Amino acid sequence: MQTIQANNYQVLFNEKGYEYLNSILLPQKYSKLFILVDENTSNYCLPHFLSQLAIEMEIEIIELEAGEEHKNIETCLQIWHSLTELGGDRKSIILNLGGGVITDLGGFIACTFKRGIDFINIPTTLLSMVDASIGGKNGVDLGNLKNQIGIIREPKAVIIDTHFLETLPGEQMRSGFAEMLKHGLIFDKIYWDNLKNLSDLSTDDLDTLIHQSIVIKNEIVSQDLTENGIRKALNFGHTLGHAIESYFLENENKKSLLHGEAIAIGMILESFISKEKGLLTSEEHHEIKYILSDIYDAVSFNQNDIKNCIDLLIYDKKNEFGTVQFALLDKIGHCKINETCENELIYKAFEDYKS
């Protein structure tokens, strides 16, 4: 796979990624090497990853409990203490080996420890390969509110090794696939058309599609790192999707949703809103709803659930001056940012989803 050049770093694939790592992880360049993992990546990914390293540095492994519920400041405090106790200094480097929680949280820790040390993301899930590890967003949740505390700073590199996907559960693959579908919907109709024919895809096709998805996200982010304009298009499906994800995460009576599962619902809802605002045709909305509903299980919402999700919208980090901001579609492959929406229309979108 061809290396992708981002603003200040490269996204390297498979063997090229390990060649790069082995060339820079030198004792004269870095004083300490830390690898951040969770319990899943420690078991399933770390042995393969370590086997690819040909370095003479001592390695310290820091392992976390797995799950979005641990992506918080309390976990950061534990890791900052661990880095200090293990002799971390300003010439240390952190390798974030894991899914979106690890790359988000690990990047935030690296950006704030000793006022900032180098970090490299090695994503091990489809979601983190095509989304979380790319673009320089690093952060943690505040209670159940997604990504409220964070910083934008790009990694030194991102290494994509698709070998890790061989041990990834099917529901995690579908979660990541939602972000790939989003990239097609907001930016490239041909890419969307290729993705929607899942039954025809091979393993080699998946590698190519992952590469294309990263190209799309990088193309958008490279124009607008700090999200003042076009980068807001990446929020399609996320305004309502994040509210749904947060509500299900905090509610003991609800089964927590994976990020992509919540975003898929958000994309269905926000495509309906796009249609009702005259931006998207009925045919396009029905196509989106049909494709996503075929891939992702339906989730039940009662009126109280909907109200609570809408109440959470005000905390969305994309809001400006107290106004909820949406990225909506004005056709498949093109997005319109800074759109507003009345609560009545959101309720209608949920009714359409339930139908």
From TrEMBL:
What Gene3D superfamilies does the record tag this protein with? 3.40.50.1970, Dehydroquinate synthase-like - alpha domain
EC number(s) for this protein?
Answer: 4.2.3.4
Any single biological process term in GO: aromatic amino acid family biosynthetic process
Please provide the record's keywords in A-Z order: Cobalt, Lyase, Metal-binding, NAD, Nucleotide-binding, Zinc
Domain 3-dehydroquinate synthase C-terminal: residue ranges: 176-319
The record's listing under CDD domains reads: DHQS (cd08195)
Matching entries from NCBIfam families are given as: aroB
Organism ancestry: Bacteria, Pseudomonadati, Bacteroidota, Flavobacteriia, Flavobacteriales
Which cofactor(s) are needed, names only?
A: NAD(+); Zn(2+); Co(2+)
GO MF term list: 3-dehydroquinate synthase activity; metal ion binding; nucleotide binding
Entry superkingdom: Bacteria
Known function: Catalyzes the conversion of 3-deoxy-D-arabino-heptulosonate 7-phosphate (DAHP) to dehydroquinate (DHQ).
Under the heading PANTHER family, the entry gives: 3-DEHYDROQUINATE SYNTHASE
Taken from the UniProt entry, a GO cellular component term is:
cytoplasm
Annotated 3-dehydroquinate synthase N-terminal domain ranges read 62-174
The name on file for this protein is 3-dehydroquinate synthase
